Amino acid sequence: MGRYVARRLLQMIPVFIGTTLIIFLMVHILPGDPIRAMWGDKAADPAQVASLRHEFGLDQPLWKQYIDYMGNLFQGDFGKTFGGREVIDEMSESFPVTLRLTAVAMIIEIIVGIGLGAWAGLRAGKAADTGVLIFTLIVISIPVFVLGFLARFVLADQLGWVAPNVQDSTDYAQLFLPGFVLAMLSMAYVARLTRTTFAENLRADYMRTAMAKGLPRRRIIGVHLLRNSLIPVVTFLGTDVGGFIGGAVVTEGIFNVQGVGNLLFKALQQREGSTIVGVVTVFVLVILVINLLVDLLYAVLDPRIRYA
Amino acid sequence: MRGAKSAKWVAGAAIIALAATACGGSDSDSGKDMNSGKADPNGILTAQLGEPQNPLQPANAKESQGSRVLRTIFSGLVDYEPGTGKLVYVNAESVTPNADSSVWTVKLKPGWKFHDGTTVTSKSFVDSWNWSANVKNNQTNSSWFQDIKGYEDVHPAKGAPKADKMSGLKIVDDNTFTISLTGPVSYFAYKLGYDVWAPLPESFFKDPAAAGQKPIGNGPYKFVSWDHKKLIKVRKFDGYQGPNKAKNGGIDFKNYTTADAAYSDLRSNNLDWIEQIPTTSLTSYKQDLGDRAIDAEYSAVQSIVPAFYTKQFKGINPKVIQGLSMAIDRDTITKTVLHGTRTPADSFVARGVLGYKPGALGDVTKFDPAQAKKLIKDGGGVPGNKISIQFNADQSHKPWVDAVCNSIRKATGVDCVGDSKPDFQADLNARDNHQVKSMYRGGWVLDYPVNSNFMRDLYGSTAAGNTSGYSNKEFDKLAAEADKAKTLDETVKMYQEAEQLLKNDMPAIPLWFYKVNSGQSTNVFGKIVYGQDGDPIFTDVQVKAKK
Amino acid sequence: MPDATKTQTEAVVDAIAAPSAADGHKEQGKPRSLWGDAWFDLRHRPMFWISSILLLLLLVIAAFPGLFTGADPRNGDLTNHFLTKPDLGHFFQADWFGYDGQGRSIYARVIYGTRASILVGVGVTAAVTLVGGLLGMLAGYFGGWLDSVISRITDIFFGIPFLLGAMVVLNAFTDRKVYVVILALAFLGWTSICRVMRASVITAKQADYVTAARALGAGTPRILFRHVLPNALAPTIVVATIALGGYISAEATLSFLGLGLADPTISWGIDIAEGSQAIRDNPHALLFPAGMLSLTVFAFIMLGDAVRDALDPKLR
């Protein structure tokens, strides 16, 4: 087990370096000068532009910029924004917000997704099953930004059931709507995955054994079936945390959430390399660690799997 | 945030329901409400603000958000009277030119204090300008000081500065100093109304970065706190001596990322003023808000500019451009696609600026498809019979670009497409490097309210704002003469003549002037008054006393 | 989630690869009957027929939009600016779905917008299947250092958030035509197919008939393309079909953010973005392009579903 974890951690290093390098190159190769853009329609003063470019190290060759950036990164220095703030400060403001939003979305996804999936799985082939299947298909087919606008228009503006925007990101009631929209797509996948594994495991040998032993139906479903069926679902949920943080770009934009997605989108518009690379770096780290944790959890849940 | 958190959710829902039923209700009630009751001189106003991009240093606010806060904290020598654009003295007692307007003498009103209690003296201004102009202090607005003698020493085109003081600034005594310019500029005093000319206290220079986070100024409000991306608080400065003393107790600038969010907070009275009505509500905000809807003009113009370095427009007959201009149905487009957020332009100079002449461009800005076709034909046609309009897709320019193109296509048969650049950077990059394929979107908000700002700074052959490659020696000569004129009135008049010259040459096609479409909450007493730059005059806003 | 394609494919990978990997793909031992079975199975699925007919119709619309409407999708008349609401009785006429903010027929725009979406979807899927499939096959079949290198590269690209990456890549292009969007999405999207292909090639190459073919002296290309590939293709096809819908959705999301297709290409994503600005008073400007987009994605995902069920008998 220890050797396995060590090997996985070692494998992370090239992946980490590669990902950050690609993002770094992408951001810096783009046409246009973020410093010049500070002047907008008005004319920029070339001497001041040159001085500012020097200040942010943008006058260095690209390879040197990357090495400097990574060097600082390992000392915990994420660099500064063009506005002179520490990127780490900006991130520590926005990550908790997105984490809260993700938590709300995750809870909705788990409760509704697994609930629907289990319900359909236990009635495989019946009308309820087909109904859930078609429902999930429809949800998957509607792009999230359309869903976001429609949900806000109908639920908040027309019916007034929920707050249309997030003014206070510590208020979970306000986070409900964006969380719900963020969760919808994944929820549909969780429902379908749960349904499949439920239906499959219902026919498994151990189920027949449990039934033959005369165990009560509730215990069979609650303990044996649920535990065994949830293994792939847990894997999916794990990989999905990354998707949530990434997916927040659109959702946060629609609902006025000051999270990572918003930070990233603004930084992208302003070509603020240090913020973009910083956020993606943290992001990639989170995904890598979660993937490892999921694999380890897999072993815990499924006694057949042993890592050497 | 007012009220308990848990209650707000319910309250918000109830208010939306109320507002929905009140849509067809009587507007006169809300009007009476606005002026009923009493003003509370210590009431706090809540206003919308985006996160300022740069630290709050006077010469470092290139964008409107930082500038909005800075203007409450700092007072300059002069300001402009809303509506007329006339000069008003604030911290200055007088600003007087010598015979040829090349040396200016500033006299300060004595006894002004910074928020930290220190006195505002000539030195506060001179030190501030020297620091801001210095290239190594990286102030984005440093080039504003380029008229002053000795600017090249602190701000050389290349390399390190040779001096840290501009030789043109001389302190006479505590309340008097002189400014020597490199040449005569008759309207120099007008430039002094901009943010960059603010004074700075001694403490600033010890740690400019820290001061940018916690600015100390001489303005009507003193800075209290800046909770990044959430809230900036300023409060009334009791020791303020200027004419524009705050009529409210202070301002809470709240951060919003979307106009929709700000608007719904305005309607539930959690926010007293918003910057702009969201596009989704432009058709209905006047019903939503009644008298509390704000619809005011400000001095900015939007135009489309031919890139004169392209094969298409190099040496083109100006008649063709006049024809294109007449093919644009400005009236219909501003009313429909732009929802009345702009008014059709009839001049190169925006309304509210000294020297603006209604209908200066005559028929050229009138929609007349037949005449448009004829002019284009007379001028030899558009090479390639196809134009494109470059714009940046990160702001909402696409609707009007599409509409303008549509109008040109239908009226003249010249094909026209929008050429979208993903963001402003890419748009500017193409403009600066002369890579625009045909035409581009141009926008200009006034720097100072004199017509020269809308002409010389945009169409002069060597003007920094001229990115189209336009050059007209006659115009350059006229502009140079106008700048040297003895009085401001003469300058303005000569620029009006120059405008007629430009009309025959068409360096750009003016489309429309900007308007502010905004609103105020029921907490505001009376109607909010706007300045020339499209921002409210916050010191004049009054907050209703709570019953 | 804008990251639609990724989660989508992940879900499918999980749904097919995960459970069957544990069983070692035993049922894939008889190639001819697998495909035969699948076809037999498909023919009896209403979902297959519904999605096929829908897709056929969409393809015809994409190829010959002029057959469906005589209205001009580009030139609007501002006198129609939102004034004309949809008249659902006016089948196939210009005002069937009403007019948009520029006074253009929404029906005409919905019809003419089909081509771009279908092209992007099919184009990206083709590119991704070709590149990802080839790399996955090489990695899976040859193993060793080649596998390590390809797998690490896959990991790197997999780590880049799909939508964010696409935003950054597309930002670099000033001329965003259909092929540019296809290349950008394919550049980031090939990893899932690569992983699926690698996994199934590894299982397929251990099968008895491959060992037999090798013992009989068959060359590497012959083994690869005649024996391994046909048996490893099924999961790839399923993932690709379902991902296709996701790519269409991703294109629309990017166009919505102003980074996808650009004028004069007519795209549902652009129209949805414009319509979303008028949602309060004129929701039809948003609903019709969004509905058409969802219908297209729906058809592709339904087809993918049917194909998966047919190819993976265990899930029945």
TrEMBL record, chain A:
Q: Which Gene3D superfamilies match?
A: MetI-like
Question: What keywords sit in the KW lines?
Answer: Cell membrane, Membrane, Transmembrane, Transmembrane helix, Transport
SUPFAM superfamilies for the chain? MetI-like
Its membrane topology: Multi-pass membrane protein
Per the record, the major location class is membrane
Which chain regions cross the lipid bilayer?
12-30, 101-120, 132-155, 175-193, 276-301
Q: Where is the signal peptide?
A: none
Q: Does the keyword Cell membrane apply?
A: yes
ABC transmembrane type-1 domain span = 95-298
Cellular compartments annotated: Cell membrane
The UniProt similarity line reads: Belongs to the binding-protein-dependent transport system permease family.
Record-given protein name: ABC transporter permease
